[in-house]
């Protein structure tokens, strides 16, 4: 047990090699493209009549996911095809979430932009920590601390503009 714990602690002091940083950059780029494609799919469902999300859209998303799984990675020769399938899958998933977005708009229209912006800000915090850190410890620690700082900052601004005593107490204890 002590050997495993010592190896775990020693891992955090290791430097991140250049191939690992390139891989992280590729992963976070794919995640950013997927997030934007899903947001575009949700936008198309909610604000236009071009495409509407339904059960068929969910089946298309499932088919795209299976196609992405079936096509093997071949050393980078078919990266554009696989990225296109991932983007199409994300767009179809965003369309499939359209009816849920319609319900959320009925409940409170501010839910969707708040959730999207919060997700993007936390995603940016973790991305910046992963791309610009040179040690493993900053990937987990830096992203978590930046997300907590962002949450505290947003709660502080919400307290200023709403005058809520509850938000003030939550911010105070954070």
Can you walk through the features of this model?
By secondary structure, this protein is an all-alpha fold. It has eight helices and no strands. α3 runs antiparallel to α4. The radius of gyration is 20 Å and the shape is flat.
Strand content: under 5%
Question: Order of SSEs, N→C?
Answer: HHHHHHHH
Q: What's the assembly state of these chains?
A: single chain
The stretches of 5 or more residues where confidence is low (pLDDT under 50) are none
Query: What number is the mean pLDDT?
Result: 81
Relevant terms:
flat; mainly alpha; 174 residues
What layout of secondary structure does this protein have?
Layout: H1 2-12, H2 18-47, H3 55-70, H4 79-96, H5 98-107, H6 111-132, H7 136-162, H8 165-173
Helix pairs in contact: 2-4, 2-5, 2-6, 3-4, 6-7, 7-8
Brief overview:
It is built from eight helices and no strands. By secondary structure, the protein is an all-alpha fold. The mean pLDDT is 81.
